[in-house]
Write a structure and sequence with these properties.
The protein is of the alpha/beta class and 153 residues long. It has helices spanning 14-25, 32-36, 46-57, 69-78, 89-102, 121-129, 134-144; strands at 3-8, 29-31, 37-38, 42-43, 62-65, 81-85, 150-152.
Length: 153
């Protein structure tokens, strides 16, 4: 296990698990939220996202947490282990509100600076719909990827 991809709904615990795995495995963790968001919640353009992710996956070892469907295929192809945190939407929403209270007015460690923690309707809607939309895409992807990859759900 040298190239680990962590995916799942917002609030599922991807970043927390990435930090813990990084310490246990002595492998650098990369948080896509920190790399792809720019200050003041400005998203990096998709072509630039692909460049950033391609540079990450060229490294010998890594743990990458985040969804970002525009680069998921790059990360899946390069990973030897894919961990899907399949958590209840209720747990995820609870965790997001807990995170909001913990980092109120500041940026969390796995987020770009100058992106103070916030919740908006679109994010909550995305979490609520995750089991019916994103999870279906992820599970279908698992059926088509290289069988040599270690998949943990």
């Amino acid at each position: 296990m040298k190239r680990v991809l962590l995916i799942g709904s917002g609030g599922a615990g991807k970043s927390t698990l990435a930090r813990r795995m990084s310490k246990q495995l002595n492998i650098t963790a990369f948080h896509l939220d920190k790399l792809l968001w720019k200050p003041n919640w400005q998203m990096t353009p998709k072509p630039e996202q692909a460049i950033i992710v391609n540079n990450l996956v060229r490294q010998d070892s890594w743990i990458i947490d985040g969804n970002y469907n525009g680069t998921l295929d790059i990360r899946v192809a390069a990973a030897d282990t894919i961990v899907f945190l399949d958590r209840s939407r209720f747990v995820c929403i609870y965790q997001v509100f807990k995170r909001l209270l913990q980092y109120r007015g500041t940026s969390r460690p796995d987020m770009q600076d100058d992106c103070p923690e916030k919740i908006d309707w679109d994010f909550l809607k995305w979490i609520w719909q995750f089991p019916n939309k994103q999870k279906v895409i992820i599970m279908n992807m698992f059926e088509t990827i290289d069988q040599s990859k270690n998949i943990v759900i």
